[in-house]
Design a protein that fits this description.
Largest sheet: 9 strands, mixed
Mean pLDDT: 93
Length: about 260
């Protein structure tokens, strides 16, 4: 199944323009795993270190309570009006449900490429043996053309979880927002929801308990490989040999920061 594109019938998300360039900073281990398996790893939201991932801002709880009260008091929507206590209990259940379904939602993260970032080199790769994979949204679309999985692609919007509000009616919303502390990443993420029964998934029987790997056409995906500015001279020759071994044809260059 190709990348799911934004439409009038799709969930609301921030689809990037097809020409937007992507970058993904990785260490040599992750790079070799990608080439060997010909698969991208999608990590479960509930396994990420950011505690705000997949959550709703504080103000959303109040907004949801007010929406129930509006339906009760103004629209007279309920045949048996709910008490404030019952409304608060239902809102609590809604937030617990959103927390639970984080385990079936998996993401693969990229960054919008506007130039190399020392911070991203340092955080996401081994500085001495780091690799940046460059791509673009149109390449991602081509790379997953033969995939059997449904995948969304969205830019991430950055918010203050103490004061900002997001759409409480859109189930995709928590996946496409992050804390403003991560704004420097300018993240673009691929999103996949694993098959589930009653919003659960048996991860114990999966090969990778922290997420799933999805087949991808690497030749279509990769436009260029950039070698870390701190790597030794022999490292670029090693990566060239590895690319030849896996028959990946793309530009291979050293970092502009070197």
């Amino acid at each position: 199944m190709p990348i799911e594109r934004y439409s009038d019938t799709s969930p609301i998300f921030y689809e990037p323009e097809e020409s937007i360039k992507f970058a993904r900073y990785v260490n040599i281990t992750k790079f070799l795993s990608l080439l060997k398996d010909q698969q991208l790893f999608f990590c479960r939201l509930d396994k990420l270190e950011d505690k705000f991932e997949g959550t709703m801002p504080k103000i959303s709880r109040k907004e949801l309570i007010n929406s129930y009260r509006y339906l009760r008091d103004v629209r007279k929507f309920f045949s048996v009006p709910m008490t404030d206590k019952i409304i608060e209990e239902k809102v609590e259940e809604e937030f617990e449900f959103r927390e639970k379904i984080k385990s079936i939602r998996c993401i693969n993260c990229w960054n919008e490429f506007k130039g190399e970032s020392y911070a991203l080199w340092k955080i996401y790769s081994d500085l001495n043996q780091g690799i940046m994979i460059k791509s673009s949204f149109n390449r991602v679309i081509s790379a997953f053309k033969e995939s059997k999985e449904k995948i969304y692609c969205s830019k991430v919007k950055y918010i203050d979880y103490n004061i900002d509000s997001i759409d409480i009616g859109n189930i995709m919303t928590p996946l496409i927002h992050k804390h403003k502390a991560y704004a420097y990443e300018e993240e673009i993420r691929l999103i996949h929801e694993v098959s589930n029964v009653r919003w659960k998934h048996d991860w114990e029987n999966e090969k990778h308990e922290k997420g799933v790997k999805i087949n991808v056409n690497l030749q279509e995906l990769i436009s260029e490989i950039v070698i870390s500015p701190f790597s030794p001279d022999w490292f670029i020759e090693l990566i060239e040999d590895i690319l030849n071994k896996y028959s990946i044809k793309c530009n291979l260059v050293s970092s502009e920061l070197k």
